[in-house]
Amino acid sequence: MKKINLFALLLVTLFTLSLSSCKDGDEDEEVSPRSAFLTDGEWSGEGIYVVQGANSISVALLLQLAGEQELADQLDAIKDAKFNFEEDGTFTATANGIADSGKWKFTEDEQKIVITDADNDETTFTVKNLTANNLNLELNIEELGMEPVELQGNTINTLELRLVRP
What we know:
Elements: H1 2-21, H2 33-39, E1 43-52, E2 55-58, H3 59-65, H4 69-76, E3 82-85, E4 90-95, E5 98-106, E6 112-117, E7 122-130, E8 134-140, E9 149-151, E10 154-156, E11 158-164
Antiparallel strand pairs: 1-2, 1-3, 1-11, 3-4, 4-5, 5-6, 6-7, 7-8, 8-11, 9-10
């Protein structure tokens, strides 16, 4: 009888030790520097640019030059847009008084961000620059279901959304 109690005590002790050595699932996982930059506060729109190799030009400026001032003003409203990326993988965006939300995630190599909107439509942006104060996201317009566009002698097939921290 004494051997059974000793055996039971040993099992209880081992079980208790195994539970106390388990990690709590709520502990913080290590956050990558890119995730930390992205989720460290609100981003404001700076502009939308056409990318031609190493050069870029404001889409709003191209539209102004083409005589499309109203459309240029609408695109220039990106400067009033606010974006928040949260650590839990959600985002909110507000532009022209309209709010949108969804989910975001980095690809495994953190070179792209996949945005999933409320309708479960995914858009993939290439991260061109991500620092504490600048976020430049490049998008091939074919990702939006559009064909490349000719404007003022320039073929527009890649756009860059530039966000800054206020």
